[in-house]
Amino acid sequence: MSTPLDLEPGATSAEPESVLQGEKRIEGRSLGQIAWSRLKRDKVALAGGFFVLYLIVVAIAAPLVVGLLGHPPNEFHQELIDPNTQIPIGPYGGMSWDFLYGLEPVNGRDIFSRVIYGSQVSLLIAFLATLLSVVIGTVLGVVAGFFGGTIDTLISRTMDVFLAFPLLVFALALAGVVPDEAFGLKGDALRISVIVFIIGFFNWPYIGRIVRGQTLSLREREFVDAARSLGARTPYILFKELLPNLLAPILVYATLLIPSNILFEAGLSFLGVGVQPPTATWGGMLSDAAQWYQIDPWFMLWPGLAIFVTVLAFNLFGDGLRDALDPRSR
Fold it and tell me: Considering only CA atoms, which of 50, 32, 25 is closest in space to residue 244?
């Protein structure tokens, strides 16, 4: 029989070899850390994400940016317009260090300033409409998928009705008859509220279907059964067990829905039923530039390029985020 190992006073048991050699211990990573490590490897998605952040900062700081690099968006500079042709004097639509993107025909407003201020309207409507769609779609999708039965049938049929609804025709009809004042709002605030309601309220079925499908799968998982066996009530299961597992698809779809809403708002403004002049919007600028594109194509270039690059950046970031959160979707 071997004798017990004698330890000196104050000595402890042997530590792992890796600790003795000064190596780092292996630590577990959360799902967020794993997703971030995947996203960092996607340089295209990161570029899109950084441009989105840059655009948001520029939109918020529009008065500062325009004060440093441009002129007030509704200030006329008719002295820089050719009285015979009504187009800006100088090459490239009047581009110069004072007017980085040139001037508008006829009135001579600063295109750079109007593009910057137009980003405020486009992003505000897109984000608010997306938020409204996400809230309605998530709530109804979770309820339909979790409870099933008659509730699921009723909500699913409601989704089918909304998906079959001619949204563009309805938006043109409703936005075209908005009064000057209603619900305590008037002017741009009323117009923006109506457009947000139209886009957000009628787009919720798309995310609602995604959330419903994910909920149908999650409600049969072991962690939900374990919560039930421990006596958890329905609100706890919905908000503490299911909703955290639905955040990834909700976040991904929201990033892909924002550019669609930007295009929809630009389309309404292009057709003349969006935010009304003289407020700058990208779609409204394109509508004004349509009659000048043959003799002053630069007027159409800048708002069109702003829409294109913004939508592209959101789509690239959304695709990369989807791959980071769910690699199986590749």
Answer: 32
- How many Å apart are CA 72 and CA 54, to the nearest integer? 21
Can you tell me which residue has the tokens 């309207």?
121
Give pLDDT tens digits for 211-252: 999 998 888 888 888 888 888 888 888 888 888 888 888 988
Nearest to 275 by CA among 185, 205, 203, 206: 185
pLDDT in tens, 28-71: 566 667 777 877 888 898 999 999 999 999 999 999 999 999 89
CA dihedral defined by 270, 273, 274, 280, rounded to 10 degrees?
60
Long-range contacts, 149-157 (Cβ 8 Å, 24+): 152/212, 155/208, 155/212, 156/212
DSSP states along 80-136? GB-TTT-SBSSSGGG--SSSTT-B-TTT--BHHHHHHHHHHHHHHHHHHHHHHHHHH
CA angle 48, 306, 114 (to 5 degrees): 135
Q: Please give the share of the chain, as a percent, with pLDDT higher than 90.
A: 37
- The pTM (predicted TM-score) of the whole model is 0.84
- Give Cβ neighbours of residue 98 (< 8 Å, ≥ 6 apart): 71
Decide: helix, strand or coil at residue 318. Answer: helix
CA angle 104–110–116, rounded 5-degree value: 115
